Predict the 3D structure of the following.
Amino acid sequence: MFSFLRHRPRSPHLASVLALAAWLTTLGNPALWQQLWALPEVDGLRGARFVLGMGLFLLGTLVATISLVAWPRLFKPVGVFLLLASAAATHFMLVYSAVIDSTMLLNVLHTDAKEAGDLMSLRFILTLVVLGLVPAIWLWRQPMPAMPWTRRLLSNLGLLAAGLLVAGLSLVWVFQDFASVMRNHKQVRYLINPLNTVYGLGKAAADTLPKTQQTLQAIGTDVQLGSRHAQQPPPLLVVVVGETARAANFGLGGYARDTTPALTTLMAQGPGLLTYYANVRSCGTNTQASVPCMFSHLGKADFEDSTQRFENLLDVLQRAGLAVLWIDNQSGCKGLCERIPNTETRDLKVPGVCDQGECLDEVMIPVMERELQALPAERKAKGTVVVLHQMGSHGPAYHKRAPANLKPFQPECTSNALQDCSREQVVNAYDNSIRYTDHFLGQTIAWLGRQAQSTALLYVSDHGESLGENNLYLHGLPYAIAPDTQKHVPMVTWLSPAMQQRLKLSVSCLKQRADQPLSHDHLFHSVLGLMDLNTQVHQPALDVFATCKG
Ligand SMILES: [Zn+2]
């Protein structure tokens, strides 16, 4: 009775294309069908009709798309890639409610082995094998008999026409529901495997390739030291680029738990020393999108539209004659530090601080001390800016981000598969990582306090995080549909009395600024303002300190 399984279809070519499209439509898309079925509009008979129409639309679209690559030597590799991409995407969609778009894919391409290791789990491997590898092996073993290219072209054109016809007719059939679902639930378009990956990779390539071929454009070529540089001692600023810290869990921001005792103590030590900015939004929802944008002079809107390559804040600081240094305790500086002194901590072996190939953020303080000594004295005499790129609250392995003696919130989730823990355990582990960032910032400020310079610290996180609200985990949703917890980030400045005096800063003015809406757009211009540098590219309207200087 199973003889049909051994039956060789008359046209194995067409059969393989149809089988691949059918698999991808159904078993390649469990997250799509699950979420569509759960929508409030999708209900009863009409809902079933809509889901069936969507299924036929996707099947037709996939047949048409695959017909374009149904050529020997191309069909099977592409088919295997589509199957594996769908299976991997399915895992992250089901487990973290992630969606697949171009910035998410860029982030994946820039992920290092350690970060990838944190996301591995038995469930991921099982999903990849069952939904990806098994059908991929089947596809690879299918015959692809030789035929004249004209005949293959005709048969592919036939597939293309049939696919488009099915897709078109089914779209007409359910158009009203289709239009309203796509309008009201924008995330659905990012759930359609494997078209989301294909489209996202295409968009990422279209966005990045023209930039890589452009020559780098200089900015701030007119930069000059301001009048305050006549005063001694020279300024020393530490910019801490935070990781995955969300404002909602920051004690200073009003969170019910005291996750920031060190910063709170510093704030109480005197007016104007420590300021918490309560209303700051990130440029992107992932590191790859946010960090380059933060250091750009363009601001979010222009940065995202720009096809040109520009220098960044660090280049301007260096051009002004300052000593500049980038220390990375994460996955790299995303190209920002290429032209300035920089160092990574990943190969350091410090007992108690570095474990399993990664270090706690505190490791950067002695590294900074050592590396600063190597910078030219004539530059340091004009001023110094150090960027510390934190590991912060990088997930999902939040429990790795703090040492055992700094984990007040228990019990914490120690699994990489966050959905296997209770929400309370996930939040505990995350809050411990914020508590450790507070400790790290406190230590850095204490170090700054010991330096014989006009010192300051500016901390801002690169994006926020979802901790299981509405079953969402991690970050990286497209900005337009991401929840505020992924975009609302903590920002802190600490200004030594010497720095306050140097800039004649008004404490009440800073206090006022602290509640106003700010964003990553302000970082570039505020650092120029804090370091008292004059250039055409500096926009005082985006400089937090501009109106507060005497
Ligand atoms: Zn990040």
In short: Residues 243-244, 286-287, 462-463 surround zinc ion (CB under 6 Å). Residues 177 and 183 are 10 Å apart (CA to CA). The chain is about 45% helix and 10% strand. The chain has a mean pLDDT of 93.
